[in-house]
From TrEMBL:
SUPFAM superfamilies, per database record: Clavaminate synthase-like
One of the Pfam families matching this protein, by short name: Cupin_8
GO CC annotation terms, alphabetical: cytoplasm; nucleus
Lineage per the UniProt record: Eukaryota, Metazoa, Chordata, Craniata, Vertebrata
InterPro entries: Cupin_8 (IPR041667), JmjC_dom (IPR003347), JMJD6_ArgDemeth/LysHydrox (IPR050910)
Catalytic activity: L-lysyl-[protein] + 2-oxoglutarate + O2 = 4-hydroxy-L-lysyl-[protein] + succinate + CO2
Protein name in UniProt: 2-oxoglutarate and iron-dependent oxygenase JMJD4
Keyword Metal-binding listed: yes
Gene Ontology terms: biological process: positive regulation of translational termination
JmjC domain mapped to chain residues: 143-302
Gene3D superfamilies linked: Cupin
Keyword Cell membrane: no
Family under the similarity heading: Belongs to the JMJD6 family.
């Protein structure tokens, strides 16, 4: 990104009120289609989609050089089962049954990949019917399990990815997934983990997306405050069950073709259908543009836990700690880990600002190399956003009730270091 363009984007963001994201409405449900790689810059994406939290679609030209687009697809655009079996036949994969509702999702089981492919072939041969139901391979961490495979390269537009930067650093998890499913498989109504952004690229096949801008989901809740499992169900028309449904906007509808990438904004609820036999690659990601939304989500989640077990507050000595434990079991993170998340992101950027990038790091696919690619002004932007959220976290009463002695450095010291690094960088 050139310095002048990013400076304009940063100035725009300073004046941007993130709370306005929930009120955003696409005129006529229009979603921009980005056709040409050479004429669309990171600055364009940052300014027009990340900051205002708008969805968009990238054409198949953005993925045409991926190994998976060349090798995972047959000449007529179908999944190349033989190639997939050769490369991944011995893997064990998570598979959901789309025909069964379990709470507000589908039940999952672990299956050998070769068994799933055998099922899929038989399902197609039997006119997309099976006594086992419609099975959908979802949330497969293929990149982590097969790092040597030439599958895809993350587009630069999505390279400021704090979630995967942090979880790679602690070597515990990641938010990079492969989905494979037959025509008719689908994902129920939901918003992504931590209210993150997501991007989804079709390797083959077609998807239909139903998108609701952040905030619209409030009109879709039933009288008990629960979100629907299926936003197309006729029961939503029953005002005695869904009293505010008639106040909701129609969903933004996208039909995603093979090779195309859909960008889903932070906090947008959605429901997705595979219109054909489809393979896709999906990432969840957070960065400086939406980390405040992640922090708001965590506060809301903790408040919900506290309401749920409020009756145990007085007799339980470690009630606040138990609330954190329950929240982590539900969301995957608690306040102390959120602090460590912010620390890792901040320290990576401080290191680049203070020490630059050595030749070995710049030659590798590392977080520091990505920071360098986006430029020093982007690193400063990230640090400024981190300071705001870290200041709020440090002042939070629930955070202060925790045992913070294990945090290194202490929040006050990290904040001081952050502010000093920003001041030095802007001199």
């Amino acid at each position: 990104m050139d310095r002048a363009t990013f400076a304009c984007s940063t100035a725009f963001f300073r004046d941007y009120n993130s709370s306005s994201q929930g009120a955003f409405c696409l005129p006529g449900g229009h979603v921009d289609f980005i056709e040409k790689v050479e004429s669309f810059t990171y600055s364009d994406f940052f300014r027009d989609y990340l900051i205002p939290n708008h969805p968009c679609i990238f054409s198949a030209k953005f993925t045409e050089d991926w190994g998976s687009r060349r090798n995972w697809v047959t000449w007529d655009g179908k999944p190349n089962f033989d190639h997939l079996l050769q490369k991944f036949g011995e893997a064990v994969v998570p598979v959901a049954n789309c025909d069964v509702k379990e709470y507000n999702s589908n039940p999952k089981e672990q299956l050998p990949f070769k068994e799933y492919i055998k099922y899929w072939k038989e399902y197609i041969k039997n006119d997309y019917r099976s006594s086992r139901g419609c099975l959908y391979l979802k949330d497969w961490h293929l990149s982590r399990a097969f790092p040597e495979q030439d599958v895809y390269t993350t587009p630069v537009y999505f390279s400021s990815d704090w979630l995967n930067e942090y979880w790679d650093a602690i070597a515990v998890d990641d938010y990079r997934f492969v989905y494979m499913g037959p025509k008719g498989s689908w994902t129920p109504f939901h918003a992504d983990v931590f209210r993150s952004y997501s991007w989804s690229a079709n390797i083959c096949g077609r998807k239909k997306w139903l998108l609701y801008p952040a905030g619209q989901e409030e009109y879709l809740k039933d009288r008990h405050g629960n979100l629907p499992f299926d936003v197309t169900a006729p029961s939503l028309q029953d005002r005695s069950v869904y009293p505010r449904y008639n106040q909701s906007q129609p969903p933004v509808e996208i039909v995603q073709e093979a090779g195309e990438i859909v960008f889903i904004p932070s906090g947008w609820h959605h429901q997705v259908y595979n219109l054909e036999d489809t393979i896709s690659i999906n990432h969840n990601w957070v960065n400086g543009c939406n980390v405040a939304i992640m922090w708001c989500f965590l506060q809301d989640e903790l408040a919900a836990v506290q309401r749920e077990i409020n009756q145990w507050k007085d007799p339980m000595d470690d009630w606040h700690l138990q609330c954190q434990l329950i929240m982590k079991s539900c969301t995957g993170i608690d306040y102390k880990e959120f602090y460590n998340f912010l620390k890792v992101i901040a320290e990576n950027r401080i290191s680049v600002l203070e020490n630059g990038l050595d030749d070995e790091a710049s030659a590798k696919n590392t977080p520091k190399a990505a920071i360098s690619t986006l430029g020093m002004l982007h690193a400063v932007f990230d640090l400024k956003r981190t300071v705001k959220v870290l200041t709020s976290l440090s002042a939070n009463e629930d955070f202060k009730k925790l045992d913070l002695t294990s945090l290194s450095p202490p929040p006050e010291a990290l904040l001081h270091h952050l502010k000093a690094a920003i001041d030095t960088a802007l001199l």
